[in-house]
Every structure is written in structure tokens, then in C-alpha cells.
Amino acid sequence: MAIGSDGSQTATMKREFGMWSAASLAFMFVSPIVAMYAIFSIGLATVGPGFWWGWVVCLAGQTLVAVTFGVLASRWPFAGGVYQWSRRLLGAPYGWAASWTYSWALLIALSSVAYGGAFFIAVLFGLDPANTVVRTGLAVGMLVVATAVNLIGRSAVKITSVACVAAEVLGSLGVGAYLLFFGRLQQPSIVLEGLHAAPGTALMMTPLIVAVSFAGWSFLGFESASAIAEEVREPARAVPRAIVVSLLAVGALVLFTSFGIIMATPDLAAILASGQDPVIAILAYHFSPTMVDVILVLFIIAFVATLIGVQASVSRVIWANAREGELAGAAWLRRLSGEQRMPRNAVLVTAVISIALFIPLQNADMNTVLIAFTTTGFFLAFLFPVAALVIAYLRGRWQPSEPTFAGRAGIPCAFLALAWLVLETVNVLWPRGTADQWLLNWSPVIATAVIAALGLLAYFTAPAHREAAKPITAPLTEPDTALPTL
């Protein structure tokens, strides 16, 4: 049994994942297919082929964040990583705020990924993907499937992660390689098209800055390996590696596959003028209708797998909060069920909330709004532990008793990661729509304010244990002998 913040014994989950299982879950969460195809068409239409460089910049920035998270995960390998790290660095209230922000980012991500995947289901079955009601119904169906898998248990999640990797190999690596080597129609210089800014263009409206704002969506979720840290064997070593490996693997696939698709673009201007989805049009140009359908099925598998990974992550974060008594209904939420001791109640709550989020967002800009919500939420959540580590170091309170991931390079990475997160958060929040597109311009800011207000209400009304967090000199983790193992 693990020890709660109040000294009481609390339930623990079985350690059934290894490093590669944790990395696969994070890979499934980020998913090159979801990371790329959910925003590729938006990027091509907004910036052009030069959008590719937005991914390059974001991958570099997020690698700094991943290394910083690896440092923290090697110090405190507990479930609900972002929450646990923030709490132990700057105290319980700060940790609670981090967890609240991160939980909502994940919940909105569930809705966003489901809505993005519903587009490909609609195309596959000849439905109208522009019909918000149709697409929402398909998204709800995807969430139901993901919830069922997570309720079954870890074995189902592991099987799904294998299916996800297979779908990625064929749908990302396979498609990208075929188009690059057999469908190439352009010169490599095409990836520079669209990056030129007209004289007098404001800095925040320049093509590369805009590309980076959209590309921020693509490299989120690598931290999910830390969310299941208490289900991983030798977590202090395995989890940091899983975080970094999953991000770099996804990043490499996104850059390779997107480059192959861009090189195989027949006439982007004509495609955009026709009103077709650019990615679907490019695939249809090079593949038979049957093959396009097969590729769409692979896309759908990847989107469902990502939903499963996201839901597994957010349910563990909610469970970790409930274990500390920091949520209303904590006794019910922290309950584990079955021989596998699964947080099924927390899983069900995530499904209900993510489905309910569709109700107030029924409009033509729903996909773009959800992407903006998700990206903003994640970057704000990432800021909590990274800023806390920098502050703790400056105060002289970061003095780990054992070597941490990345060694001496960890702290410099944390400072650079903090600068990157601040700049990208401002970039994502920056209003770029026309004057009549107020929803696109201000919805992320409004949503952030609403979630913050709800957080204050929840914090002061929940029957939480609000004593100070464990001091920063607390042991790295509880002895493995105190935890149930296989």
C-alpha cells in the first residue's frame, strides 16, 4: 500500500507495464497520424507547404519540455505526473491548480481527437463531414468504444497499442515512404513556399509564427507515460526514457510522412480552390479508391487508439487527485475495481464530461476551436511543473539525493523549456481571425477564464486535504517492496 499525504494507507495499482509499454502508450496518445492529419489540411490552407517548418520548431521546443519532464519523473515517478511534480515543488495549492488545468486539457483533448477522427469516418462511409450533427454523433461513438476498452483493463489497452503501432507503420511510414519515393511530383524547395511574409506584416501574423501556433497541437501527450508511473516496473528509469523516446519517435514520423505528402502534392492551389480537403485529395490522386479506404481505416484505428491513451491518462490523473481527497466525490473516484485494480469510476467520469463538452460547441468552427482549446490547455499545464522546477532551483531547493535523468543538462533544459512554453502559449492564444470571428479569436481565452473560475469554486468547496506538500527532500519513491507486483 502507498502512503497518502495524510499518512493513511491508500490503494495502489499493479505494475504491469514496462518501459516499452509506457512508451507505446505515450506513442498511442501522441500518434503521428493524429498529430499530423488533424491539422495538416489547416496548415496547408493557411500557410502552404512551408507549414512543415512549424513542426520542426515545435519538435525542438517540446524536446526541451520532454527532457525536463524526464528529470522530474526520475525524481518522483508517481501517477499523475504533472500534478505530483508541481505539488512537491511548490506545494499543495499549486499542485492542485496544475492538476485541474491538466485534467481539463486532457478532457478537451478527448473531445477534440474524437471530433477529428469522426471526419475520416464520415469520408469513409460517404457521409457529410461538414455536418456538425453527423460528425458529433460519430465522435460520441468513438468515445464509447474507447471507454469500453479502458473499462476492460490493461490487457485491452496493450493490444490496442500494438494495433496503433501497426496502423502508424502503414498509415504514416508506409504512405509517406510510398509518396516520397514513387509519387514525388515536387522539388524539396517546395517546403519553403508560403514562408515569405509581405512587407509590413505584423510579427505574430508572419507565416512561420502562424505555422508554429498550429503545429503546437501535434506534439502533446508524451508526458502520458508519467501518468501511469505507478503501473510501470522500475519507473524512475523507465518513465523518463519513455517520455523522450515517444516524442522523438512521433516527431520523426510526422516530419518524414508530411514531407512525403508535400513532395507528392500535384497542384495545391487547384486543390484549395476546389474546396477539397488537401490531404484526402492528395491521397486520392495517388491511390485507388479502395486503397484510400484502407488508409482511412488505418487513420480511424489511430484516432481510436489515441482516445484510449488520452482517456487512460486523464483517468489516472483524476484518480491521483481523488486519492489525495482533493476532488468532490473523492471516495468514489479513487475506488479501484476488479482483479486488475482499475480506476473504472474515473474512466466513466472522463467519458461523460468529454461527451458533454460537445453540447455548447455546435458550430461550423468547432474543429478549429477544439484544437485551440486543447493546445492552450496543454501548454498552460506544462508551464506549471517546468516553472516550479526553475523556481525551486533558483531558491536553492532543488537538491535531489540521487542522480536524475539528463544529469547536469537537466536544469539548463528546464530554463529553455520555460522560455519556449511561455512564447508558444502567447502564440497559440494570439487572436488571428477577422473581426467577425470573435469565437475563434477569443474562445481559448474565455475557456481558460471559465475553467479557472470553476477551479476556484471546486478547490474551496471540495472536502480536500490541503496541508503542505511533502518537502522537496522527500524520498524518491516508496520502496517497491511496499507495492503489489506481478
UniProtKB/TrEMBL annotation:
Superkingdom, natural source: Bacteria
Keyword Protein transport: no
Bilayer topology: Multi-pass membrane protein
Key words of the record: Membrane, Transmembrane, Transmembrane helix, Transport
Transmembrane parts of this sequence: 20-40, 52-73, 94-127, 133-152, 159-181, 201-222, 243-264, 294-314, 345-363, 369-393, 405-422, 442-462
Main location: membrane
Single annotated GO MF: transmembrane transporter activity
Keyword Acetylation attached: no
Protein's recorded name: Amino acid permease
